[in-house]
Amino acid sequence: MTEPLVVIGGDAAGMSAASKTKRDDPDREVIVFEKGEWVSYGACGLPYYVKGDIESLEDLVSVPAESFVEERGIDLRTNHEVTSIDTEARTVTVAGPDGEFEQSYGDLLVATGARAVEPPFEGMGLDGVFTLHDMEMAASVRRALGLDAPGSRQEGDGPRGDASADGAPESVAIVGGGYIGIEMAEAFREHDLDVHVFEMLPHTLQPFGAEAAATVEEHLVEQGVDLHLDTAVDGFVGDERVEAVAVGDEEVPVDLVLVGVGVRPNVELAEAAGIETGPTGAIATDQYGRTNVDHVYAAGDVAEATNAVTGEPDHVPLALTANRAGRAIGATLGGEPTPVGEIVGTAVVKAFDLEVARAGLVDEAEAREAGFDPVSITIEAESRAHYYPGGSSIQVTMLGDRGTGRLLGASMVGREGVAKRIDTVATALHTELSVERVSMLDLSYAPPFSPVWDPVLTAAKVLAGKLE
Amino acid sequence: MTEPLVVIGGDAAGMSAASKTKRDDPDREVIVFEKGEWVSYGACGLPYYVKGDIESLEDLVSVPAESFVEERGIDLRTNHEVTSIDTEARTVTVAGPDGEFEQSYGDLLVATGARAVEPPFEGMGLDGVFTLHDMEMAASVRRALGLDAPGSRQEGDGPRGDASADGAPESVAIVGGGYIGIEMAEAFREHDLDVHVFEMLPHTLQPFGAEAAATVEEHLVEQGVDLHLDTAVDGFVGDERVEAVAVGDEEVPVDLVLVGVGVRPNVELAEAAGIETGPTGAIATDQYGRTNVDHVYAAGDVAEATNAVTGEPDHVPLALTANRAGRAIGATLGGEPTPVGEIVGTAVVKAFDLEVARAGLVDEAEAREAGFDPVSITIEAESRAHYYPGGSSIQVTMLGDRGTGRLLGASMVGREGVAKRIDTVATALHTELSVERVSMLDLSYAPPFSPVWDPVLTAAKVLAGKLE
Region (Disordered) spans which residues (chains A, B) (predicted)? Predict the structure, then answer.
């Protein structure tokens, strides 16, 4: 009999692979080891849980753990941590509630995800300093705000949780102006906190490019956010609880700190077993999600994916990539070799009243590094017909390659119609369309939804003119 | 010296071509003859003018007539009707306010547009019976509703205008359940009229397919529209004013009638001059917008375009196609041969609170006629992450070709996020992507804007499974 598929990590990639394998090959034994309590949850919803838009942590769960077990026949074991992999013997060592044991595998999927980077700041261990890397940490942040934390499976607070002996906090420092930082700024403003955002680079939202970021930053200030760009944080000051952020000679007094300076793939377990990482530091995989070791796959936030624009390995830890790769690996294991698919770095974030989106290469320097000769333009266009009420402006930055005329990428920012407009760009990038061809796409028009020339078409038209 | 470019028709295609020609070749003389009063206006906005969302007809004008003359150097002559074309002598005969004259041309663009079909119903000539084919007719409809008609350049009413001697009308029959019919239903409901929609086919919105239409129809009924499907109108009853719609043995009493049963290209002038029409009845053109006659181009609602899905000539009279073709012909005349571009039949319409969109082939019978072996699916997906508040359902119908696996088209309907989601499908159609590849596109995801698997991806995934 075939040895089981063993999956390490019970979130998007892991549970997608487990489910698809069981669906396509119901006789295959599938065991998932998840070191935490929660499986298959939407971590992207955590800022909205803190904000109060989402009632309970339970709402973020896509598929309840029982369903995986009872309906899909998956042997799902939460609170089980895989501590080592022996790729020769094809076994993993597992630490569970009842002690340590070995489990053999026929195939192994490493889906250990990523974790929030914890920079070596002084004072990272103070009470009131948080990252936002999992469900219970989001619950702790709510408790720290003096709010209830519905759905939390832990009593009381996390290690740094307790905040409110001195009453509800009035101010918060967010360290890092990325997605999480911006989304959490919105959440904290909702609870009327004074919000400071510290970003060491000249702009927030680095992957979205300077043009989109500048527009977002104006909006953040309008929303009452105290923005500290080009500002490196040195550490946090306080006795037991955080009291201030140290920045050079200055101290900015705050009641809470949220550190969101990026994520790092959890590769240590795999690396210790001889599974290779790629240039990005995440696990290197081929088009079927296979690692360098026979019968070992990797998917999700721990793994690289191929960027269709550059043709190079890339690490963009996002939910769709994880789900897609997990499902493809499941199909492959079920008997039908299925590529995990390429990415083009598509992303969108809500920044208060703005939608900010990107795909491909949006920064000239980055495009040059990837071997292109980039030309870029930034335009403003309307979201609706000029005469139709309620429209607003959409800013589009678009890059093309001078040599080939190829579309390289775009960013967009506006109050409406941005999130899904970027998908036109993403689709064009997957098929390596020229900017000229993009400018001639037959895109939808009706007065309530678009000008006759969609902003994407207008941007492509202007860029094509510059590429001639 | 080169003879002038003469353009017949001063709307989207004509003015785009005139403007682009002058921009790229400022020394070229460009003369535009427009038989009406208005040039370069957004006819798509007329239903919203009647509804009251748009204040004045003037707001619908994209570029004021003076700007074409003064800033762009175009010799624009309104109230000038071209009555014949002599393609041998390269002249047109023009009837203007000061009499008839001949004008020679070096190149000629036929951009005579389309007109509302006036079916041979008894009673079409009664007062209170309207089509909605131009600016002044929209003004007449407003007057017929007892409303002011800001921006109208005609005194009083059109030939069938006067309605309100007996007070404001209380009911209206819309004959034809196409775009205009649905948009006008919304406009009339806004003014609290009882609205009857008569459609002779089993469904409204024929180009959007039965699945989308059925969902729209439920919504129309919720909005208080009295829907008469599969119901052929026989004519209109009344003495001078319309009093009822005759349907078989029945008469449905109404105060007003709006006939919107489609448009027909204004090809008569061209045909009389030996300019050939194609299989759709519109003027046949090549990829540069050239007709069968040397130095004669056609563009806009009067001309065919090539459908990228079928590879065949098609007639989808929409604003973007007209603008694009006009601009391309201008560029070609300016010295740079530029294709007018292909269409994929992308369209979107607002139906009260719904967005309804389509691209490609959305009907199995139509796809079979075009030589494909269609397989279709219809799914429901969410517009946002399942846990994010405010989301709603999006229904996607998608067609693929069994033989090649190629995507053939899709329709979508929902309360949000539909209008621009169809552009992903449109872009994929332009590049002849397989359904499988569509299912692997890297589309944007964030909880407020989409589920992890965008509805387009989910539809493609399900359809790909059925195509295997």
Answer: 148-168
